[in-house]
Structure formats: C-alpha cells, structure tokens
Design goal:
By secondary structure, this protein is an alpha/beta fold. Helices cover 36% and strands 22% of the residues. It has a single domain, classed as Flavodoxin domain (Rossmann fold), CATH 3.40.50.
C-alpha cells in the first residue's frame, strides 16, 4: 500500500508531528510505502495566484503544484493531520486544497452536469486536534460543521472515501499518559488502511 501523509502544523515538537511520526512508523512497519508532506517544512505557498480552481484549461500550474499532484496520484491512502484554528484548518492546508486540488485533477466541473470527483480510488483518514473540550465542541455543533466542510465539501467532492475523521480534544491540557493513549488509538485507526 502507498500512503501519503499531509501534515499542517508549524512546530516539529507538536502533538500533530507526533501523530505524523506514529502513523509513518506504524504503516512502514506494516509494509506500506509512506511519504510525508510537511507543508510548513516545505514552505508551501498557500496563496492562490492563478485561477486554476475554476479554469479547466490548467495552463498555469506551477512546478510546486505538479509535485504535490504527483504525490497524491501516487498514493492509495491519504492521511491529513492538522490542528483546529478558529474552528477550521490552518490557512496553509486550505491553500493546499485551493492550489493543488484543481479542476481537471481532483474534480471535473461542467456547467450542466455539475461536479465529478476524479480521485475515486483513494481512501482517507483525518486526524484533527483541538485545545477545546469535547463537551464544548459537540453541543455547539463545531465538530459536525468541521467534518462536513472537510469530509463532504472537499474530500468527498473530489471522490475520496473518508474512512474516519478523528478529533483529539484538549490536547494542550492533557497529561503524557492521555497523549500516549491517543497515539495508541492513532495506530489502531490507520490499521484499517
């Protein structure tokens, strides 16, 4: 199996980085080929400067975008790992979708037919961390809104099968034992890939 990890956290010492490392080591030990795209380490430019999102001709795709698209095409499984900032993903990850998941690559939009996802053979797991408690997030419908935005509005739209979208709550406030339990759960979740 070929698995691509997309990490979107600026700190190499973050819990998100620990999740990425755990996924990479666990899947490698299971025989997966694993690639990691650490968007901050890559200094990925999230700013959409050309209209490759709506323009089907795709005549202005940069080398940076081509490299990311090659990695996505290579992968059978995608694993997204990111923190919750202002009830959503970091801007660098949103920009990744804006720039890399282009019309004609990730989806095809036709005026009369609507959208067709072009990444239909891919499975995906999402790990999202938050500093907030589950008791705060769920009653305020923040979890369901973020799941809908990511899982349906982006991934399903592109044909990607989201296996699970796992939230880890209160990450900055839990002890080492709780974090180790979370990392153990990470391994059991990616075992389905």
């Amino acid at each position: 199996m070929k698995t691509l990890i997309i990490l979107a956290h600026p700190s190499k010492n973050s819990f998100n980085a620990s999740i990425s490392y755990e996924v990479e080591m666990h899947l490698t030990n299971k025989g997966h080929e694993v690639r990691v795209r650490d968007l901050y380490a890559l200094k990925f430019n999230p700013v959409l400067e050309e209209d490759n999102h709506t323009n089907f001709s795709q005549n202005k795709i940069t080398e940076e975008m081509i490299e990311e698209q090659k990695n996505i095409l290579w992968a059978e499984n995608l694993v997204f790992i990111y923190p919750t900032w202002w009830c959503g993903m970091p801007a660098i990850l949103k920009g990744y979708f804006d720039r890399v998941f282009t019309n004609g690559f990730a989806f095809r939009y036709e005026h009369l037919k609507g959208a067709e996802g072009l990444l239909k053979e891919k499975k995906c797991v999402v790990f999202q961390t938050t500093s907030q408690t589950e008791d705060f997030m769920k009653p305020n419908q923040l979890i369901s809104s973020m799941e809908t935005s990511m899982d349906v509005g982006i991934l399903d739209y592109c044909g990607i099968n989201v296996i699970t979208h796992k939230f880890f709550y209160s990450v900055p406030n839990v002890d080492k034992e709780a974090r180790e339990k979370m990392l153990k759960e990470v391994k059991s979740i990616v075992d389905i890939l």
